[in-house]
Amino acid sequence: MDLLLLEKTLIGLFFAIIVAIVVSKLRSKNFKLPPGPIPVPVFGNWLQVGDDLNHRNLTEYAKKFGDMFLLRMGQRNLVVVSSPELAKEVLHTQGVEFGSRTRNVVFDIFTGKGQDMVFTVYGEHWRKMRRIMTVPFFTNKVVQQYRRGWEDEVAHVVEDVKKNPESATNGIVLRKRLQLMMYNNMYRIMFDRRFESEDDPLFNKLKALNGERSRLAQSFEYNYGDFIPILRPFLRGYLNICKEIKQRRLQLFKDYFVDERKKLANTTKSMDNNSLKCAIDHILEAEQKGEINEDNVLYIVENINVAAIETTLWSIEWGIAELVNHPEIQKKLRDEIDSVLGVGVQITEPELNKLPYLQAVIKETLRLRMAIPLLVPHMNLHDAKLAGYDIPAESKILVNAWWLANNPATWKKPEEFRPERFFEEEKHVEANGNDFRYLPFGVGRRSCPGIILALPILGITLGRLVQNFELLPPPGQSKLDTTEKGGQFSLHILKHSTIVMKPRSF
Ligand code: HEM
């Protein structure tokens, strides 16, 4: 290690400790901070609580410190809220005050310091980006334009599974095929493009770079440099890798997709026809009008890659696992589809609202296996007040949405996968945030605009699989292993399940 750097760091650390003690003494005089474990200088609570602040660990802290508590992670404040009333305050009543996103050195690289939409602060830029993205992505017109594409993609999945003799005997890891389907669902909307097979080299390049971006952004490895700024010089190597991945990824979006579409637009007149436009054509129009720049265009593509594909895929994967582990629910769902549509008549999007049990299965999956259990972290740009406590400016605010939807004080036997609850005691609860106990997509200004696409994609996919196959655990296993992984950013299944898929004969 560079000795001079080490010496400088130790001197810096010493002064940081003195400054931290003085600042914390000054601050505690002025601020009434939320309860929480007692912090030590410089490290705060970090050494006590560790890195893995997933939804379950944070639930345990909530039981100890209350519905709102504060953790000091080095120099950063982390406020966790765990009641529907406080969630309402953060996301709705004080939605402007708490409507920003936290930034850190790694996210700054991947978002070009907030030139995107998902991770930018609440303000003019966010409003403009959200407006520009709405028409091409988040309207019912988009659903109607692309739903046949989604139906076609899942029909290909069904066909491929039927062709593979392994699927009906030893089983297959269905997720791999569904991942291709989800990329195709979103790349059709963005660029009117699809990938032919799991072996497509461009698809694999894209998948690898997206995977690497998620791993680097969600790793705990860089926490020390984020929590204790004086240690940041040691992150140089890590940040250089992030910069390289970011560069390669944006270049790939540009060279293979955005520029290709620009060329096509220059050679055809058909772009005048609104109905043939895909999302990027609308976004490029906004660029031409000078509303956004070329980088913003690429960050929009980046955001859709991050926010849309894996989230929906995790939810599909959880839904399938629950249906395999609850054959009686799977059968009830199949019976509903058979009786409403007729045996073998393939589900399409317009039928989804005639299938209430399918919708209840989706809601229950999103409740018990919430894909983003702490929402995307919120942040207050300025000092704020919450339930009588002071929240220092730039605190990271986590809403433990998973606990809101799984708290036995407010839900009947929440640990059970029971779609029927949405016909019985929870019949008024919808996924759009009409009840602050159930926020799988958040609610308010920063809520998920993709809900309008995610719900029909989930419905078409789960519906088609159940109506075409009997879904079973692999030979010798009575249930799938549903051990969870993650939770701090996203909640997924630890081991991608092998599933036996017996085709039904019609
Ligand atoms: C089952 C699938 C999905 C789930 C569970 C989900 C969930 C969420 C959640 C919890 C948030 C954060 C809300 C908050 O911070 O208060 C979010 C934000 C977002 N989601 Fe989704 N999402 C899904 C699918 C999608 C899809 C398909 C798209 C796009 C096509 C999308 C685009 C976005 C965007 C752009 C944001 C950021 C909104 C903002 O910051 O203003 N999501 N999503």
TrEMBL record:
Membrane topology, record value: Single-pass membrane protein
Main location (coarse class): membrane
Pfam families: p450
Involved pathway(s): Phenylpropanoid metabolism; trans-4-coumarate biosynthesis; trans-4-coumarate from trans-cinnamate: step 1/1
Binding site for heme: 448
GO molecular function, one term: iron ion binding
GO BP field: lignin metabolic process
Subcellular location: Membrane
InterPro entries the record matches: Cyt_P450, Cyt_P450_CS, Cyt_P450_E_grp-I, Cyt_P450_sf
Keywords: Heme, Iron, Membrane, Metal-binding, Monooxygenase, Nucleus, Oxidoreductase, Transmembrane, Transmembrane helix
Catalytic activity: (E)-cinnamate + reduced [NADPH--hemoprotein reductase] + O2 = (E)-4-coumarate + oxidized [NADPH--hemoprotein reductase] + H2O + H(+)
EC code: 1.14.14.91
GO CC entries: membrane
Cofactor(s) listed in the protein's UniProt record: heme
Transmembrane segments: 6-23
Entries under PROSITE patterns matching the protein: CYTOCHROME_P450
Domain of life (superkingdom): Eukaryota
Family, per entry: Belongs to the cytochrome P450 family.
Primary role: Component of the floral volatile benzenoid/phenylpropanoid (FVBP) biosynthetic pathway that controls carbon flux to pigments essential for pollination or UV protection, to numerous pytoalexins synthesized by plants when challenged by pathogens, and to lignins.
Protein name: trans-cinnamate 4-monooxygenase
Gene encoding the protein: LOC107823514
